[in-house]
Specification:
Blueprint: E1 4-8, H1 13-27, E2 34-38, E3 54-57, H2 71-90, E4 94-97, H3 99-107, E5 111-113, E6 118-127, H4 129-133, E7 143-150, E8 153-156, E9 162-166, E10 174-177, E11 181-184, H5 192-201, H6 213-221, H7 230-240
Parallel strand pairs: 1-2, 1-3, 3-4, 4-11
Antiparallel strand pairs: 5-8, 6-7, 6-9, 9-10, 10-11
Length: 256
């Protein structure tokens, strides 16, 4: 099978490595089957979609609706936009998470702003009728908990996009363009250790008051986030065209 491509924008190594390891573990992919590109480290050059089974865009420190952008963010978003041109035109398998929903949303003409931000923690996500019928999300319970924390969100989707899920505070938690291009506002790769790492890394990034970190971790440990990681495995099952290994606690992971 062709590998999958993980696009990362996290400048903190611990966050980028933790994201990659979680994507490996929950997708069932081996290291050689998931290539990570750290976009914040320099220009990515030419990426041929023909070399991959699918593309995953993780979260990061940028916001698609930021008014003030650093030169790195400007470059990264130009590269993502160019790649999305080809992905959407070909209806190529794509899964964006958190930052990925904002970038895909803006690319497709959605209104993205800070109207529907949500605090860090576990939130109940409910599938729409279209979400319950969707082949990527349809195996999930009608309502499930997921970890998230975001400053921006989609306020209005364009007519051609399909809203797949929502929460009480955010009207678009997942959407699809065409048949194979997906994005989620929540993080399908996050479990309790994963969100604890994010809380530590982004303690001073404006998502919460630094003194709240321990309380947020305690709330995360008391949550029931078990279903979202299955989205990653399902994404691979749909688009790899090959069997994948079963997850085992003993499987070691390292960045490729």
């Amino acid at each position: 099978m062709k590998p999958f491509l993980l696009l990362s924008t996290r400048e903190v190594d611990l966050a980028a490595e933790s994201e990659y390891e979680a994507m490996l573990r929950f997708s069932g992919l081996l290291q050689e089957q998931l290539q990570q590109v750290r976009m914040e480290q320099g220009p990515v050059g030419t990426i041929s979609l023909d070399d991959y089974s699918g593309v995953i865009l993780g979260g990061g420190p940028f916001n698609a609706s930021d008014a003030d952008r650093s030169p790195v963010q400007i470059r990264v978003e130009a590269e993502i936009s160019a790649l999305l041109d080809g992905i959407v035109a070909r209806d190529f398998p794509f899964l964006g998470a958190c930052y990925g929903i904002g970038t895909l949303g803006l690319h497709q003409g959605a209104a993205v702003d800070r109207t529907y931000s949500e605090p860090v923690g576990a939130t109940a996500i409910t599938l729409t009728e279209q979400g319950r019928a969707d082949r990527l999300l349809g195996d999930l319970p009608d309502t499930f908990e997921a970890f998230l924390g975001h400053k921006e969100a989609i306020r209005v989707l364009p007519p051609h996009a399909v809203n797949l899920a929502f929460s009480a505070a955010c009207p678009v938690q997942a959407f699809r363009v065409g048949n194979n291009v997906y994005a989620t506002q929540f993080h399908p790769e996050l479990d309790i250790p994963g969100i604890e790492t994010r809380i530590d890394v982004y303690r001073h990034a404006g998502y919460f008051e630094p003194h709240e970190a321990d309380v947020l971790k305690a709330r995360a440990r008391a949550s029931n986030v078990v279903h979202p990681p299955s989205i990653l495995r399902r994404f691979v099952e749909l688009y790899s065209g090959a069997p994948i290994r079963e997850e085992t606690a003993e499987t070691p992971h390292a960045r490729s």
